[in-house]
């Protein structure tokens, strides 16, 4: 589902970026979800005794590797793509469940942005029941301006024994 809107002059009310967000340089590089090396992804790793892949949370920094053309449609398309890079369920799901696939995914673009600069994505679990997990999220550019909102539902199935 897509909706289109011609820009209009109005007031704004956007979510501020959290104040205690670690810088991208302080977070480890994530090999997964880089689209063949086209994106640099850095994930926040949570404290804990579980294996590293189970402690990667829904907070990450992402940017395109290298400069991009000025085409705003390209930047919008890349923003849609990176909105699906993370999941809060790695840390929140129980040990016997696995996130399988996105069932539905919605993104609302609030401001134009350049995807060849860093963007912080923060995803929060909302509900998990009946083999489905639902979460919401926000995306900010490096200066702390909210550029998008995200909502997604995942299929979650038992892990193979």
Number of strands: 6
* Main beta sheet strand tally, sense and closure: 6 strands, antiparallel
Tell me the β content.
35-45%
What's the alpha carbon Rg, rounded to whole Å?
Answer: 16 Å
Shape: globular
* Share of residues in helices: 10-25%
Tell me the structural class.
mainly beta
Strand order of the largest sheet: 1-2-4-5-6-3
Secondary structure tally, helices: 3
Low-pLDDT segments, ≥5 res: none
The average pLDDT value, as a whole number, equals: 83
Order of helices and strands: EHEHHEEEE
Span of the ends, CA to CA:
37 Å
Walk me through the structure.
The protein is mainly beta and 161 residues long. 12% of the residues lie in helices and 39% in strands. The chain has helices spanning 52-55, 72-82, 89-92; strands at 39-45, 56-64, 97-109, 119-129, 132-141, 146-158. It has a six-stranded antiparallel β-sheet with strand order 1-2-4-5-6-3. β4 and β5 (132-141) form a beta hairpin. The longest helix has 11 residues, at 72-82. The relative contact order is 0.19.
Map the helices and strands.
Layout: E1 39-45, H1 52-55, E2 56-64, H2 72-82, H3 89-92, E3 97-109, E4 119-129, E5 132-141, E6 146-158
Antiparallel strand pairs: 1-2, 2-4, 3-6, 4-5, 5-6
Provide a quick synopsis of the model.
With about 160 residues, the protein is mostly beta strands.
Descriptors for this entry?
six-stranded antiparallel β-sheet, mainly beta, 161 residues, 6 strands, globular
